[in-house]
């Protein structure tokens, strides 16, 4: 993509306005906290201190809107306390330009590295640095700086207290994540009815897993319907794929296929019902036709072998989902769901819920974050490059703002820090959106000021209204949110005695300067994702190979090897797949040519690796129990898979085409052993392939086919 087209695409995406679900009650709570803080500060300390405290309450509320699984009061407290400390330290050093520049560079560099701990930490840290550039200009002495810092912290505390006193959809983020995972499983079941080899996007399951991680205190308070359902949903996915895939024994058409379609439709209906119940916290209401379809005895007369085992396993897992989704309703409300679950389960015992996923507390999170930041301090790290860009732009913008004859020079570094992200497309899109939003917001606020001539009280009221609109509309588009923020800042600084006419021109011009600095910094010191595509693809190949090898290993020695190895390999595969998909999406908007990996090759390789993971998942759905007979020759095949994919990943990074000779040889040797076992079984009058793992034998050839398709896709 050329630079001109890249700029056009990113600007268009930044200015896009989307229809999103609004959360008016949460927005009202945040605006009420802001109004309370401004009112108390105005009454006790005057408009200047009220402006500082308002920034603290405003930023604390914004922090609670970030996508995070931590309690919202904790996010508000972290934001308020860190901003208050930053304001005090920034003011103390502000009188000495060199010392303040050192502090600013260090602060912004650490804020950039905070992205290593996740987007929420990076956004909060960058926002605090940006707002600190404004708040340090308000005090006039060290004592007043301490007062301003304390009132900023007070704003964060007020927002946290309001969240505790007036909870809105408590555990709502976790409920949505789990419900989205179950709804994705339901959609997958419906797609399998028409496309038996449909692929599944694991992102909803990954988000649900992250949402399920809780601290010990949260684990004691978590609603019962959030226990266990995610683990069951994880186990349902391979069962659904195994039931639908013709390679597992069900013909493409006929009464057996019709029965499979009925089971998949019933599973989709029950999963949707469980998702609705969990999302709203209501008792589960099951569709009667779906329950009847799973209870009918026709399954046993139509299906045999692996498909029958998959159908029985699906019924048991769905009953577990229903039981978990029942929640804490009354005895009468739960009776129907319990009866349906028992009928579906048909005598099978439920699997006990797994222990909760541990999440470190705040104190224990500090060394975790420090280790994550240290891992990014190496050449080529996008996070490190982002931190360097952020620090350099903040310092240059601050010096440039001071040198220009406009006053309020902090607008330039503030705008740059707020729009910069580790990715090219987000940085450029936000730069365009921030400038447009700033122009709209400043001119609307100026028009209101010229018409109403508000005093401190009315200015505070206008600021609260702008904040309310910001909280309500911030998810619809960055430009919309920035228009509200620009008007909010104009009203707030006007309340503190700022000159209205001066604010309009300087803010627009310096915002443009800050956005241009951010864009220039990425062009000068980029962190392109395009050159790393081959590395991401190699990581996914290696992870897929380890997952397939771990599954085959289970057949080799069921008694010795537990399912933990398979689970860890599956999670690593998902992470590698999502990293690849995000890299491809980012590279599409970069003005960089593909280096050794064309779009066609990337698509072909992605399809082959998705098929490789899918075949491994089919084998996982039929893992043998601990007392099962080991499958001869499975261990050498697993080792060949592991070794060949590791070498293949290295070949991909070095722009070579992987070779799968050792996998092919191991598979041929294994087939010879299986033929010998079949011959012995015939001579003994037993069923052929009884001891050779029929599911594994049907799938190993598909593994090799997927690997060879991968190599063909990379062949010039």
Key features of this structure:
two-stranded parallel ribbon; elongated; mainly alpha; 716 residues; 2 strands
Would you give an account of this structure?
- The chain has 716 residues and is mostly helical.
- The protein has helices spanning 3-14, 24-44, 47-64, 72-94, 97-113, 119-135, 142-165, 172-194, 203-212, 216-221, 229-244, 255-280, 288-295, 298-302, 305-325, 331-345, 362-375, 382-403, 411-419, 424-452, 456-473, 478-495, 500-524, 533-556, 564-587, 599-620, 634-653, 661-683, 694-714, and strands spanning 213-214, 357-358.
- It has 29 helices and 2 strands.
- The two termini are 21 Å apart.
Rg of Cα set:
29 Å
Spatially, the strands of the biggest sheet line up as 1-2
Largest β sheet strand count, sense and barrel closure? 2 strands, parallel
Helix content: over 70%
Q: Which ranges are low-confidence, i.e. pLDDT below 50, for 5 or more consecutive residues?
A: 329-338, 345-354
Report the sheet-strand fraction.
under 5%
